[in-house]
Amino acid sequence: MNNIIHHVTVKIENIIKDTDRVNVYILSDPDQNILPPFTAGARIDLHLPNGMVRQYSLTGKMIGHKQYKIAVQKEISGRGGSVYIHENLKIGDIIPISLPRNLFPIQKASRKHILIAGGIGITPFIPMVQTLEKRGEDFELHYCCRNAESTPLYNILKCLIDKNKLHIHHDNGDTNAGLDIRDLLSKQQYGEHAYCCGHSGMVRAFKDATKKWSQDSVHCEYFGANNNDNVAYEIEIASTGQIIPVNQNQSMLTALRAKDINIEASCEAGICLQCKTKYLDGNPQHRDMLLSPEDRKCYITPCVSSCQGGRIILDL
Ligand code: FES
């Protein structure tokens, strides 16, 4: 039987400072071999030396596959992955990554593509606009940021796209002064597809604005969940009766791991469902991006989701 390759090893070839908070990392094969191909919108998992796994969109030009490019924004109040990358990874380091996978592809045979990016959410759109320009398809890109200084990858982007198709929206910190997504997407024209990658507030506004669209035409790339509203609670393990306290600053996954209960997890951001676990009782606080309403009645994603208080019984 042939072995299937799930991971490759890459070397950090270069690190380029793009903005105050964003670094671009150039990754290549340590022996200069060609890397596995990818399509516009694809992402990879980075397996960091501290055991964290984080996803980043491939954002390089799609010319040959000798290098991958990712852009990482340092999020001081995030889950720690981006801070670790900024403060620890250096040129020459060797790290394992997953093969590219694409959950955010460009749709074929569309009349027009409307792309909406928020901040570092621009990353998957860089190869996407390149592909759309090459195909000669109609599109417009709306890129929302606070100000010119905090507009990641702008210098790369402006060389790839006709300026009439690029709409930059700087709100200077006033959310009312930014792009009116509802107005932009108020009516779906026949054959139009809309795409969004940005912070959770932007994705919510996008989903709200496209509620009446055909859902086959609406595409989101998720960054991961915010779990700042946790409360303390307990987990009960159904098979043993073991009680595990979870404090306000802990994820359910971390609390389980601390007691040597290991659930397989990949993204740790609520966007892959690898950690999906059955629960038997309790009031879950779901924060994943993918479970269906039906699944939420009996499954939870311990990497990001929690309990609204009291106790949750996991079918483990
Ligand atoms: S590990 Fe991906 S959803 Fe939990």
From TrEMBL:
Listed name of the protein: Oxidoreductase
Alphabetic keyword roster: 2Fe-2S, Flavoprotein, Iron, Iron-sulfur, Metal-binding, Oxidoreductase
InterPro entries per UniProt: 2Fe-2S_ferredoxin-like_sf, 2Fe-2S_ferredoxin-type, Beta-grasp_dom_sf, FAD-bd_FR_type, FNR_nucleotide-bd, MRET, OxRdtase_FAD/NAD-bd, Riboflavin_synthase-like_b-brl
One Pfam family of this chain: NAD_binding_1
Species annotation: OCS116 cluster bacterium
Single GO MF descriptor: 2 iron, 2 sulfur cluster binding
Keyword 4Fe-4S found: no
Residues in FAD-binding FR-type domain copies: 5-107
